[in-house]
Specification:
10 helices, 23% strand, 4-stranded antiparallel beta sheet, binds adenosine-5'-triphosphate
Amino acid sequence: MAQDKPLLKVEKTGIRFGGLKAVWDVNLELFQGELVGLIGPNGAGKTTFFNLLTGVYVPTEGEILLDGDSLKKLPPYKITRKGVSRTFQNIRLFGELSVIDNVKVAYHSLAKHGIPSSVFRLPKHFSGEKEMDEKAVEFLKIFGLDRFRDEKAKNLPYGQQRRLEIARALAANPKLLLLDEPAAGMNPQETKELMNLISFIRTRFHLTVLLIEHDMPLVMGVCERIYVLDHGQLIAQGTPDEIRNNPKVIEAYLGEEVS
Ligand SMILES: Nc1ncnc2c1ncn2[C@@H]1O[C@H](COP(=O)(O)OP(=O)(O)OP(=O)(O)O)[C@@H](O)[C@H]1O
Protein backbone atom coordinates (compact mmCIF):
# COMPACT_ATOMS: atom_id res chain seq x y z
CA MET A 1 0.00 0.00 0.00
CA ALA A 2 1.39 3.40 -0.94
CA GLN A 3 2.23 5.64 2.04
CA ASP A 4 1.87 9.37 1.67
CA LYS A 5 4.05 10.41 4.64
CA PRO A 6 7.71 9.44 4.66
CA LEU A 7 9.38 8.30 7.87
CA LEU A 8 12.45 10.34 6.94
CA LYS A 9 12.33 13.46 4.83
CA VAL A 10 15.54 15.24 3.92
CA GLU A 11 15.04 18.60 2.25
CA LYS A 12 17.78 20.42 0.40
CA THR A 13 20.26 19.44 3.08
CA GLY A 14 23.97 19.98 3.02
CA ILE A 15 27.14 20.90 4.84
CA ARG A 16 30.15 22.92 3.88
CA PHE A 17 33.62 22.38 5.30
CA GLY A 18 35.32 25.67 4.48
CA GLY A 19 35.07 25.86 0.70
CA LEU A 20 34.18 22.19 0.25
CA LYS A 21 30.51 21.31 -0.27
CA ALA A 22 30.79 17.79 1.15
CA VAL A 23 27.03 17.22 0.85
CA TRP A 24 24.88 19.61 -1.06
CA ASP A 25 21.20 20.17 -1.87
CA VAL A 26 20.21 16.60 -1.07
CA ASN A 27 16.53 15.62 -1.13
CA LEU A 28 15.67 12.13 0.04
CA GLU A 29 12.62 10.32 1.37
CA LEU A 30 12.39 6.98 3.10
CA PHE A 31 9.06 5.29 3.72
CA GLN A 32 8.39 2.94 6.61
CA GLY A 33 9.68 -0.56 5.90
CA GLU A 34 11.88 0.31 2.92
CA LEU A 35 15.39 -1.01 2.42
CA VAL A 36 17.19 1.65 0.42
CA GLY A 37 20.78 1.87 -0.80
CA LEU A 38 23.05 4.92 -0.78
CA ILE A 39 25.95 4.53 -3.16
CA GLY A 40 28.60 6.73 -4.73
CA PRO A 41 32.31 6.76 -5.51
CA ASN A 42 34.93 7.32 -2.79
CA GLY A 43 34.59 10.73 -1.18
CA ALA A 44 31.08 11.26 -2.60
CA GLY A 45 29.73 12.31 0.81
CA LYS A 46 27.93 9.15 1.97
CA THR A 47 29.36 8.97 5.49
CA THR A 48 29.03 12.73 5.87
CA PHE A 49 25.35 12.33 4.99
CA PHE A 50 24.98 9.74 7.79
CA ASN A 51 26.77 12.17 10.10
CA LEU A 52 24.17 14.81 9.23
CA LEU A 53 21.29 12.41 9.89
CA THR A 54 22.70 11.39 13.27
CA GLY A 55 23.63 14.83 14.62
CA VAL A 56 27.42 14.41 14.37
CA TYR A 57 27.29 17.41 12.04
CA VAL A 58 24.66 20.13 11.97
CA PRO A 59 23.58 20.88 8.40
CA THR A 60 24.51 24.32 7.14
CA GLU A 61 21.41 24.13 4.91
CA GLY A 62 18.06 22.46 4.64
CA GLU A 63 15.96 20.33 6.95
CA ILE A 64 15.86 16.75 8.22
CA LEU A 65 12.51 15.44 9.47
CA LEU A 66 11.77 12.14 11.19
CA ASP A 67 8.04 11.47 11.43
CA GLY A 68 7.61 15.19 10.76
CA ASP A 69 9.89 16.31 13.65
CA SER A 70 13.09 18.20 12.93
CA LEU A 71 16.33 16.42 13.83
CA LYS A 72 18.45 19.29 12.59
CA LYS A 73 19.70 20.75 15.84
CA LEU A 74 19.40 17.73 18.11
CA PRO A 75 22.51 16.13 19.67
CA PRO A 76 23.26 12.53 18.64
CA TYR A 77 21.86 10.92 21.81
CA LYS A 78 18.50 12.61 21.32
CA ILE A 79 18.39 11.50 17.70
CA THR A 80 19.07 7.93 18.88
CA ARG A 81 16.18 8.20 21.34
CA LYS A 82 13.93 9.43 18.56
CA GLY A 83 14.64 6.19 16.73
CA VAL A 84 17.72 6.56 14.52
CA SER A 85 20.54 4.03 15.04
CA ARG A 86 23.67 3.51 13.02
CA THR A 87 26.74 1.42 12.51
CA PHE A 88 30.12 2.78 11.47
CA GLN A 89 32.43 2.15 8.55
CA ASN A 90 35.20 1.42 11.04
CA ILE A 91 33.90 -0.86 13.75
CA ARG A 92 33.36 0.99 17.04
CA LEU A 93 32.72 -1.64 19.67
CA PHE A 94 33.80 -1.55 23.30
CA GLY A 95 36.57 -4.09 22.78
CA GLU A 96 37.25 -4.77 26.46
CA LEU A 97 33.57 -5.33 27.26
CA SER A 98 31.83 -8.65 26.80
CA VAL A 99 29.68 -9.25 23.76
CA ILE A 100 26.49 -9.10 25.83
CA ASP A 101 27.58 -5.89 27.57
CA ASN A 102 28.15 -4.24 24.20
CA VAL A 103 24.49 -4.84 23.42
CA LYS A 104 23.33 -3.84 26.90
CA VAL A 105 25.16 -0.52 26.72
CA ALA A 106 22.86 0.50 23.89
CA TYR A 107 19.82 -0.93 25.58
CA HIS A 108 20.60 0.78 28.88
CA SER A 109 19.49 4.24 27.85
CA LEU A 110 16.06 2.86 27.02
CA ALA A 111 15.66 0.61 30.08
CA LYS A 112 12.90 1.46 32.53
CA HIS A 113 14.88 1.32 35.77
CA GLY A 114 16.50 4.55 36.95
CA ILE A 115 19.80 5.42 38.60
CA PRO A 116 18.55 5.21 42.24
CA SER A 117 17.32 1.65 41.83
CA SER A 118 20.59 0.69 40.10
CA VAL A 119 22.78 2.22 42.79
CA PHE A 120 20.89 0.73 45.71
CA ARG A 121 20.27 -2.57 43.92
CA LEU A 122 16.55 -2.45 44.60
CA PRO A 123 14.31 -5.28 43.34
CA LYS A 124 13.20 -3.03 40.51
CA HIS A 125 16.81 -2.87 39.37
CA PHE A 126 17.13 -6.64 39.24
CA SER A 127 13.97 -7.04 37.23
CA GLY A 128 15.31 -4.36 34.86
CA GLU A 129 18.70 -6.08 34.64
CA LYS A 130 17.13 -9.49 34.01
CA GLU A 131 14.89 -8.01 31.37
CA MET A 132 17.94 -6.40 29.74
CA ASP A 133 19.86 -9.70 29.77
CA GLU A 134 16.98 -11.54 28.15
CA LYS A 135 16.47 -8.89 25.55
CA ALA A 136 20.21 -8.71 24.78
CA VAL A 137 20.42 -12.50 24.40
CA GLU A 138 17.44 -12.35 22.05
CA PHE A 139 19.38 -9.94 19.81
CA LEU A 140 22.53 -12.03 20.07
CA LYS A 141 20.65 -15.18 19.05
CA ILE A 142 19.31 -13.51 15.93
CA PHE A 143 22.88 -12.70 14.95
CA GLY A 144 24.24 -16.13 15.91
CA LEU A 145 26.36 -14.50 18.64
CA ASP A 146 24.80 -15.89 21.82
CA ARG A 147 27.50 -18.54 22.19
CA PHE A 148 30.06 -15.69 22.46
CA ARG A 149 28.05 -13.71 25.01
CA ASP A 150 30.79 -13.58 27.68
CA GLU A 151 33.72 -13.23 25.28
CA LYS A 152 35.44 -9.85 25.01
CA ALA A 153 34.20 -8.11 21.88
CA LYS A 154 37.76 -7.55 20.65
CA ASN A 155 38.33 -11.33 20.55
CA LEU A 156 35.53 -12.00 18.07
CA PRO A 157 36.44 -12.70 14.46
CA TYR A 158 36.06 -9.62 12.27
CA GLY A 159 32.81 -10.69 10.57
CA GLN A 160 31.20 -11.38 13.95
CA GLN A 161 32.27 -7.96 15.23
CA ARG A 162 30.42 -6.40 12.31
CA ARG A 163 27.32 -8.41 13.20
CA LEU A 164 27.65 -7.38 16.84
CA GLU A 165 27.67 -3.72 15.80
CA ILE A 166 24.34 -4.23 14.06
CA ALA A 167 22.95 -6.13 17.07
CA ARG A 168 23.95 -3.20 19.28
CA ALA A 169 22.35 -0.69 16.92
CA LEU A 170 19.14 -2.73 17.00
CA ALA A 171 19.13 -2.82 20.78
CA ALA A 172 18.48 0.92 20.80
CA ASN A 173 15.07 0.08 19.32
CA PRO A 174 15.35 2.15 16.14
CA LYS A 175 12.72 2.96 13.55
CA LEU A 176 15.46 3.86 11.12
CA LEU A 177 18.69 1.86 10.88
CA LEU A 178 21.66 3.38 9.06
CA LEU A 179 24.30 0.86 8.02
CA ASP A 180 27.65 2.22 6.82
CA GLU A 181 29.30 -0.47 4.72
CA PRO A 182 28.26 -3.33 6.99
CA ALA A 183 29.89 -5.94 4.76
CA ALA A 184 33.27 -4.19 4.47
CA GLY A 185 36.07 -6.72 4.87
CA MET A 186 33.75 -9.73 4.85
CA ASN A 187 34.21 -12.68 2.53
CA PRO A 188 31.51 -13.39 -0.11
CA GLN A 189 29.80 -16.06 2.01
CA GLU A 190 29.70 -13.84 5.12
CA THR A 191 28.43 -10.97 2.97
CA LYS A 192 25.61 -13.05 1.53
CA GLU A 193 24.57 -14.22 4.99
CA LEU A 194 24.68 -10.66 6.29
CA MET A 195 22.45 -9.37 3.53
CA ASN A 196 19.90 -12.11 4.23
CA LEU A 197 20.07 -11.13 7.87
CA ILE A 198 19.50 -7.46 7.10
CA SER A 199 16.41 -8.36 5.06
CA PHE A 200 15.21 -10.55 7.92
CA ILE A 201 15.66 -7.97 10.69
CA ARG A 202 14.01 -5.30 8.56
CA THR A 203 10.81 -7.37 8.57
CA ARG A 204 11.15 -8.77 12.09
CA PHE A 205 11.68 -5.34 13.71
CA HIS A 206 9.55 -3.26 11.29
CA LEU A 207 12.62 -1.27 10.38
CA THR A 208 13.42 1.16 7.66
CA VAL A 209 17.00 0.69 6.50
CA LEU A 210 19.40 2.96 4.64
CA LEU A 211 22.49 1.07 3.54
CA ILE A 212 25.80 2.45 2.33
CA GLU A 213 27.64 -0.22 0.41
CA HIS A 214 30.45 -0.36 -2.11
CA ASP A 215 29.62 -3.79 -3.46
CA MET A 216 27.27 -2.97 -6.35
CA PRO A 217 25.80 -6.43 -7.04
CA LEU A 218 25.06 -6.63 -3.35
CA VAL A 219 23.21 -3.29 -3.21
CA MET A 220 21.37 -4.08 -6.42
CA GLY A 221 20.34 -7.47 -5.07
CA VAL A 222 18.99 -6.39 -1.73
CA CYS A 223 17.64 -2.81 -2.03
CA GLU A 224 14.30 -1.77 -3.48
CA ARG A 225 15.47 1.74 -4.29
CA ILE A 226 18.87 3.36 -4.56
CA TYR A 227 20.15 6.92 -4.23
CA VAL A 228 23.45 7.87 -5.84
CA LEU A 229 25.74 10.61 -4.53
CA ASP A 230 28.64 12.06 -6.47
CA HIS A 231 30.75 15.01 -5.33
CA GLY A 232 28.24 15.65 -2.54
CA GLN A 233 25.17 15.87 -4.77
CA LEU A 234 22.47 13.38 -5.67
CA ILE A 235 22.88 12.43 -9.28
CA ALA A 236 20.28 9.67 -9.50
CA GLN A 237 17.62 7.75 -7.64
CA GLY A 238 15.50 4.80 -8.67
CA THR A 239 15.14 1.05 -8.78
CA PRO A 240 18.28 -1.08 -9.20
CA ASP A 241 17.48 -1.47 -12.91
CA GLU A 242 17.06 2.26 -13.40
CA ILE A 243 20.32 2.95 -11.57
CA ARG A 244 22.24 0.28 -13.48
CA ASN A 245 21.26 1.90 -16.78
CA ASN A 246 21.54 5.54 -15.72
CA PRO A 247 24.21 7.30 -17.85
CA LYS A 248 25.16 9.71 -15.02
CA VAL A 249 25.78 6.77 -12.69
CA ILE A 250 27.80 4.92 -15.30
CA GLU A 251 29.89 8.05 -15.85
CA ALA A 252 30.44 8.59 -12.11
CA TYR A 253 31.62 5.01 -11.79
CA LEU A 254 33.65 5.05 -15.00
CA GLY A 255 36.13 2.26 -14.79
CA GLU A 256 34.23 0.53 -12.00
CA GLU A 257 31.73 -2.31 -12.24
CA VAL A 258 28.15 -0.96 -11.88
CA SER A 259 26.18 -4.18 -12.14
N1 LIG B 1 35.12 16.94 9.11
C1 LIG B 1 35.49 17.17 7.87
N2 LIG B 1 36.23 18.24 7.53
C2 LIG B 1 36.60 18.50 6.26
N3 LIG B 1 36.27 17.71 5.21
C3 LIG B 1 35.54 16.62 5.47
C4 LIG B 1 35.10 16.28 6.79
N4 LIG B 1 34.38 15.13 6.73
C5 LIG B 1 34.35 14.76 5.43
N5 LIG B 1 35.04 15.64 4.68
C6 LIG B 1 35.23 15.61 3.22
O1 LIG B 1 33.94 15.44 2.65
C7 LIG B 1 34.00 14.62 1.48
C8 LIG B 1 33.06 13.47 1.61
O2 LIG B 1 33.60 12.51 2.51
P1 LIG B 1 32.82 11.21 2.98
O3 LIG B 1 33.70 10.49 3.95
O4 LIG B 1 31.47 11.57 3.43
O5 LIG B 1 32.71 10.38 1.63
P2 LIG B 1 32.23 8.89 1.40
O6 LIG B 1 31.30 8.91 0.24
O7 LIG B 1 31.70 8.33 2.67
O8 LIG B 1 33.59 8.18 0.98
P3 LIG B 1 34.10 6.67 1.16
O9 LIG B 1 33.27 5.85 0.24
O10 LIG B 1 35.53 6.76 0.74
O11 LIG B 1 33.92 6.32 2.60
C9 LIG B 1 35.46 14.22 1.33
O12 LIG B 1 36.07 15.10 0.43
C10 LIG B 1 36.01 14.39 2.73
O13 LIG B 1 37.39 14.64 2.71
